[in-house]
Amino acid sequence: MSNLIRWEPEREMMSLRDAMNHLFDGAFTPMSMLRTMGAPSVDLYQTEDDIVVSASLPGMKTEDVQISITGDLLTIRGEFKEKRDKKEKSYSLREQRIGAFERTLSLPAQVQADKAHAEFEDGILTITLPKSEAVKPKTITVKAK
Q1: pLDDT, tens digit, for every residue of 57-115?
Q2: How far is CA 144 from CA 90, 138, 139, 140, 141, in A?
């Protein structure tokens, strides 16, 4: 005796939908993967007076990095250059970054771009951006009458 299974078009459509969802889930790259594709890892934090951006740029030279501020956007550009040897090499694995990158960050507050400064130490670029006076917290004293 054979079992008959009733055809339910709704169930068939749901399995097609699940298959399409699975297809599209793998198509979009998470942000952590984008970071490893050339753009440096960045930390951004605030103190009472400054916004500080710290970028990991191992092996770079200061002359290979450009920093610009336009409105509330900070852009870090640079290029990881390939170290050329006279010998030809046949790599089995190559994970070091080579090529140009650009990373643009939206700043959380207005800054005084003319007073910003940057330091480069041990492969870490640290950019200190003083906050604009208009956005710094103000203390108001209360006087009793």
Answers
A1: 988 888 889 999 998 899 999 988 877 766 777 878 877 777 888 999 999 989 999 99
A2: 80, 19, 16, 13, 10
Segments making up each domain of the chain, as ranges: 38-82+97-130
CA distances from 41 to 2, 21, 32 (A): 62, 30, 9
Half-sphere exposure of 106 (CA within 13 A, CB side): 1
Residue 126: CB atoms within 10 A of its CB come to 14
Cβ atoms of residues 125 and 59 within 8 Å: no
Determine the Cα–Cα distance for residues 51 and 132; give it in Å rounded to an integer: 10
The domain 38-82+97-130 is placed in CATH, from the list 2.60.40.790, 2.30.30.240, 3.90.1300.10, 3.40.50.300, at 2.60.40.790
